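Worked example

This section walks through a single chain of length 195. The input is the sequence exactly as stored; nothing has been trimmed or padded.
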Amino acid sequence: MSYRNEIHGLDSEGEPVRMDGDALEHYAAEAEAGYVVGAGGKLVPDVAPIKATSPPMKFLAELERLRAEVEKAEQALEDADQTSHRQLQELSDWIDDWPENARRDPEALTWGRLAKVSEEAGEVIAAFISVTGQNPRKTERMLMLAVESELLDVALTALCAVAHLRREEIRAGTILDSLRVHIAAVHSRAGLDPS
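Given that input, the structure is written out below as tokens.
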């Protein structure tokens, strides 16, 4: 392989280094072993993530491909947020529009939706009692996964109750946006934000 008059590496300022003659032959073998020419023509380990011999257009094309992937991922997250918000609203509306609930006084319906959050929390405790085997009458034990599922039921029920409270309101953002803002506020109150 001939290395004559080719760019062999970059110096410390990022300028291309061309070599000729005996030095080139000596450095050629070292270059294949993972070294590049550094400042003053000295060999240094090649630790650059992109080799100097990589064409800049290849690098730019790869950068553009990565940017497109990030944009696609961000759009997928936004779409997932919108889908989750729609599903929360549909679940809440389904409960509110159920024939028995549709006939209820609005205040009684709200009380029922709020009480349901506490009822779901009771199921978390029942599942944990089962996991830990604290009830000798019940020999079949649940897995911790059941406790997690019940906790998620509590969260879902609470988010649907928020959707119920907002049913007649037009508000910017989604319920999940409100959840993110609330998480950030509690995080800040806990003193976990960087100073």
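What to look for: Confidence is low (pLDDT under 50) at residues 1-5.
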